[in-house]
Amino acid sequence: MAFHLHRVLAFLTVVMVVSHAALPPELYWKSVLPNTPMPKAVTDLLQPDFVENKGTAVAVGKGGVNVNTGKGKPGGGTHVSVGKGVGVNTGKPGKGTNVGVGKGGGTVGTGHKGKPVYVGVRPGPSPFNYIYAASENQLHDDPNVALFFLEKDLHPGSEMNLHFIKSSNSQTFLPRQVAQSIPFSSNKLPEIYNQFSVVPGSIEAEIIKETIKECENPSTRGEEKYCATSLESMVDFSTSKLGKDALAVSTEVDKETQMQKYTIVPQVKKMVGDKSVVCHKQNYAYAVFYCHTTESTETFIVPLEGADGTKAKAVAVCHKDTSTWNPKHVAFQVLNVKPGTVPVCHYLPEDHIVWVKNQKST
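^ that's the sequence the OP posted. Answer follows.
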């Protein structure tokens, strides 16, 4: 799908304006949470342009949404790119204006069309959204299935076969004002597809559709949910539920391995309180997190050692009450238990975040 030049230039204007008007995401974090360190799951989704503060810069993703006003790189001019897919360059000597679409890109001037932006894996229900029944593909192919376990197995010496995978979903945070300028609604799907040069009916289009649908679906009883389209909005939602002394934690693994046996080693740490906010990264064209409050839960930091010596510090959440979950949810099928009978726990992938009460404040 060709990307319309006027839309790209309009997007460029919005990004340029808001880059002057707002704090970069990590500075917003520090202003709201001065005593809370960023977990790796957050820092991995930030761009060095924000930290270095070279000129005016907004950078997101490996392809990113990137705005440079010429101070950051020699001969820069102005550059904007969206995801891995859409780029605008102006001001380079002898180059005129170039709009690239897709990973390899193409140009408006020559009429080439690139590939749609790739936003992640095939669509399917998230195992961490408890209103959904498991699909056959999920039961057989989803490595996250192995992350569910029973609370009785949460003790040193316990062994589990686990696969902590590095997500291929590397899309990073947009500044809040930029994210708010982009539609995020089921009734705006054609506009969203056009914004990111996604072909209707493609896998990418289905992923975008399903992610927005999950965000718009009603929450389960006793749960509050929110889809954060920026780091700032995630911080605001989480602190509104837990207070300004909230602590964010994420799973960290030495290296990616194949499915292997992991053993829980001593010094399992239980976090304070029975309420948390859990934020799960979604497949989308930029970083979107499905956040929900969880009551009657306990959060643990669990040290693990793999059969090959790999060390992990895994975040585990144990749900005391699963009575409102879908009876066909993947957890019940792999653990062979029924809703509301026993506590169900799960480890979180490395790109998910759990917010809890800071123990220092209690």
